[in-house]
Amino acid sequence: MAILSLSGISKNFGAIQALDGVSLELNSGEVLGLMGDNGAGKSTLVKIIAGNFKPTRGTITIDGQEVELHRPVDARNQGVEIVYQDLALCDNLSAAVNVFLGRELTKGVGPFKVMDYAAMNARAGELFRDLRSETRPRDMVRAMSGGQRQAVAIARTRLAQAKILLMDEPTAAISVRQVAEVLNLIRELKRQNLAVILISHRMPDVFAVADRIAVLRRGRKVADRPTASTSPEEITGLITGAIESL
Ligand SMILES: Nc1ncnc2c1ncn2[C@@H]1O[C@H](COP(=O)(O)OP(=O)(O)OP(=O)(O)O)[C@@H](O)[C@H]1O
Ligand SMILES: [Mg+2]
């Protein structure tokens, strides 16, 4: 059974129709590459799954249950986490504290509660090891590379026991080495049976990690196929409209 199923999702912003009847299925342990030109509706689609926007029409089913996501916390409660390009981490705090931001571990009781940094460092260290990331819990985020920052953002989602991870352009603004790191993180999440939607304009990244590629054009889904049975040329044609649909 699909962990995520979208059926006939449409979204209007006033006169603009950002999405037009998009249906999509995603299984656990599967990476879906979501591609399309600027303004095609990719971010709008993942924001709907993350509870940032309500669809104008259509239904969302998670783990067999139809859900209404009014706010991001509703999506989070359903095991949906989103990692944005700008990552929203606190530069002046350590990696471990960022991982636990908003759900800090404490020790002691009542008014004598204090932060349990040792426990947070230990647990964050485990999460980074699980992700095969070299990020160290005590390092300040300020001094981290783009790839290490992503590891922190992803470790947060592991703490939340996410089932579905949405990534909007995670490799757009980082160096070649960091891209490799992020692609490895995605492979590791797949091994841990998460379902991942990866939005990217970067064809090599999508072909490196996606099991399946869906293409949006002007708010419509024009293709959805196994990566193994398509090619970058075909996907480019679908994105631009040179190929109508598949
Ligand atoms: N909050 C909003 N209010 C009004 N219009 C919006 C809003 N968000 C998106 N749109 C419009 O919806 C359409 C789809 O935008 P969206 O951001 O989903 O595209 P995208 O595929 O993510 O593009 P890009 O590759 O540039 O990130 C665009 O026409 C955009 O202008
Ligand atoms: Mg976008």
Description:
With 246 residues, the chain is α/β, with parallel strands linked by helices. The chain folds into 2 domains: 1-79 and 163-246, Rossmann fold (3-Layer(aba) Sandwich); 91-160, no CATH class. It is 33% helix and 27% strand. The protein contains 8 helices and 12 strands. The strands form 3 sheets. The chain has a 6-stranded mixed beta sheet with strand order 6-9-10-3-11-12, sandwiched between helices. Helix 5 runs parallel beside helix 6. The longest helix has 16 residues, at 176-191. The chain is globular, with a radius of gyration of 19 Å. The chain starts with a strand and ends in a 6-residue tail after the last helix. The mean pLDDT is 91. The structure holds adenosine-5'-triphosphate and magnesium ion (MG). Adenosine-5'-triphosphate binds at residues 13, 16, 18, 36, 38-44.
At the first level of CATH, what is the class of the largest domain? Alpha Beta
- Main sheet summary: 6 strands, mixed
Shape: globular
Strand order of the largest sheet: 6-9-10-3-11-12
Might you state the CATH topology name of the largest domain?
Rossmann fold
Task: Supply the CATH architecture of the largest domain.
Answer: 3-Layer(aba) Sandwich
Number of strands: 12
What is the domain total for the residues?
A: 2
Structural class: alpha/beta
Order of helices and strands: EEEHEEHEHEEHHEHEHEEH
Proportion of residues in β-strands: 25-35%
Helicity range: 25-40%
| CATH homology-level superfamily of the largest domain | P-loop containing nucleotide triphosphate hydrolases
Question: How big is the Rg?
Answer: 19 Å
**Are any ligands bound, and if so which?**
adenosine-5'-triphosphate, magnesium ion
Task: List low-pLDDT spans.
Answer: none
Q: Count of helices?
A: 8
